[in-house]
Amino acid sequence: MMASPCLLAAAPDVVSNDACQIIYRDNHDWLLALDKRPDLLLATLEKNNARPLGYYFEELVAFWLQQRIAGNYFESHVRVFEQKRALGEFDFLFTTGNNDTLVHWETAVKYYLYFKTEHEKICGYGPNPDDRLDIKLNRIFNHQLKLGSFPQALKLLEQIGFKSVKAQAFFKCYLFYPVNSQWWKPPKLPDYLAPDHMKGWWTRINRLELPKTASGQRWIMLLRLEWLAPKVINRPDDSRLLEQSQLCELLAQHFARSRQPLLIAQMARDDTRGWQEVSRGFVVGEHWPDESAEATRG
């Protein structure tokens, strides 16, 4: 999560790739130890019982901050009110270093499909097409990150001993490009996107096209909480691994009764590390994104 490439290019109000890599590198030994003894992390996740993907991601960020980044002060989901009306919420407020700087992180993990409309407009739609990249970025940078400048927020900050806050977006996101494009290295990108952001592909069920597979490769349908990280399978006989013909049959059955997009992963076997994800992509309905949002919520 921390080491995964960021969607957005470096900017003062973005937690950049470089910053994330420094955090990851400085805590590498701690991560190895946590991998061997994950009891505290597992207990934290079980206690908070975060099942929706966004909440699960926030719990992981909170664990990082509390265990390795935050100083003496840490709070999450701090709401700002005007009388009884909520104006907004700080996802995370925490101090760093010598505790003289208060930081606000606004966090999100998203999955958007790059789509060109009939008017040649490029949009990033979520699997639920009500969720759009441009709307999300506008919300983050023009409202959520500016919350600390509101008079009501400044009053709250003074109560905890600070006159200002440094606001940044911790935004992790996959962008999925049409499967018949150069999706692994898109030729034209807006300046605000980091060129090494996480990438995948997408295709329609009625014109199903999948990336080429090498001999012995398999496919797997990813569960929602498996979306966060590249899929790894250590068991050689995992029943969820599918040959392409099996995958196509299951996809046809799914879209015969549902319009919910599915995220699938292409897997290759490594003799020493088991099955490793090679690529991932969404399969969407024939009329997506024009299908109703209600049908794609899942």
Which shape, going by the Cα principal axes?
Answer: globular
Sketch the major β-sheet: 10 strands, mixed
The residue fraction in helices comes out at 25-40%
Mean pLDDT: 91
Total strand segments: 10
**Number of individual domains:** 1
Cα distance, first to last residue? 24 Å
Concise account of the structure shown:
The chain has helices at residues 17-26, 28-36, 39-48, 53-69, 133-142, 151-159, 244-257, 293-296, and strands spanning 74-82, 85-96, 101-116, 122-125, 166-178, 198-204, 218-221, 232-233, 262-270, 274-284. The chain is α/β, with parallel strands linked by helices and 298 residues long. The chain has one domain (17-296).
Q: Care to describe what's here?
A:
This protein has 298 residues and is α/β, with parallel strands linked by helices. It has one domain (17-296). 28% of the residues lie in helices and 29% in strands. It has 8 helices and 10 strands. Strands 1, 2, 3, 4, 5, 6, 7, 8, 9 and 10 form a 10-stranded mixed beta sheet that branches. The longest helix is centred in the N-terminal third of the chain and has 17 residues, at 53-69. Residues 293-298 have low confidence and may be disordered.
List keywords for this structure.
29% strand; 298 residues; 8 helices; disordered C terminus; ten-stranded mixed beta sheet
List the helices and strands and how they pair.
Blueprint: H1 17-26, H2 28-36, H3 39-48, H4 53-69, E1 74-82, E2 85-96, E3 101-116, E4 122-125, H5 133-142, H6 151-159, E5 166-178, E6 198-204, E7 218-221, E8 232-233, H7 244-257, E9 262-270, E10 274-284, H8 293-296
Parallel strand pairs: 3-5, 5-6, 6-10
Antiparallel strand pairs: 1-2, 2-3, 3-4, 7-9, 8-10, 9-10
